[in-house]
Amino acid sequence: MSTTVTGHRSTPLAPRTTAHLDGAPTVGTTTRVADTTAGLTLARGLAVLRITTGLVFLWAFLDKTIGLGYSTTSARSWVNGGSPTKGFLSSVDVGPVQSLMHTMAGTWYADRLFMLGMLGVGFALVLGVACDPLRSPA
Question: What is the pLDDT of residues 29-42, one digit of tens each?
Fold first, then answer.
């Protein structure tokens, strides 16, 4: 037996024995959480939440780019000369970086990095980039 950091004793886990359809036991196989019914429901729910959040980022990108009319009118859109960062960064009133935010508000590099960030995060969430990096190749 070994002792964990919290002081609890743990016993080494014995390999699981599972039976396949042909009845032959297989030693050492484990069951992933997503293979259970509750785990599958949780995985699907988290996937829906991930994709929905990604679509919100992509919608915000489109709204700032072409002005869909919800938070950005078409006259103030990025393609018509508006700045996606000017309103937010110029309204910072407190904090140690207030003057830096006011200086960056509406600059070409802040606008491009902000829009690239929204687009990148949106696509990454919708496509599921790095969602299950620990999955073993099957």
Answer: 555 655 678 888 88
* 3-state DSSP assignment of residue 35: helix
Residue pair 9/2 in contact (Cβ under 8 Å)? The answer is yes
Residue appearing with tokens 């709204």 = 63
- In angstroms, the CA 123 to CA 73 distance is 24
Determine phi and psi for 11, rounding to 5 degrees: -105, 145
Integer angstrom CA distances of residue 116 from 47, 105, 124, 132? 23, 16, 12, 24
pLDDT for residue 26: 58
* CA 39/CA 113 separation, integer angstroms: 37
Report domain extents, the chain.
Answer: 55-128
